[in-house]
Amino acid sequence: MANYLLIALGGALGSLLRYLVGIRIQPSESFFPVNILLINILGCFLIGMVLALVDAKSQLFLFLTIGILGSFTTMSAFSAQALDLLLDEKYLLATSYVFLTLLSCIISTVIAYYLFKALA
User: Fold this and answer.
1) 55-64: per-residue pLDDT in tens?
2) Per-residue pLDDT at 31
């Protein structure tokens, strides 16, 4: 039960941090989403730090990775999974995972957008 509470608390903190960073750093005049880019880069940097320094079986690990960083950015979890594949020397699988994830997520977003725009 303690793990669930730690993850929930971390999730609340991570989503609040994402909101605060997002409103503090506004997209540029060219409408490039620099705020989301920086959130994803920061989240990936932080998950790399946590993976290097925190015991993966600890409650602190759950609080930081699934809780805070999981709600701050999903890009951090994606990057950690890709790193695991690379560290296991599964290079083809890692490359496939990266490209398939990026491509399928973008396509899924486009399909949902146009589908629900048409239904509205």
Assistant:
1) 999 999 999 9
2) 66
The boundaries of the domain holding residue 34 are 2-73
Q: Do 52 and 87 touch, CB atoms closer than 8 A?
A: no
On whether residue 13 sits in a domain, the answer given is yes
| Residue 51 and residue 83 in contact, taking contact as beta carbons nearer than 8 Å | yes
CB atoms within 10 A of CB 63: 23
Which residues of the chain fall short of a pLDDT of 70?
27-32
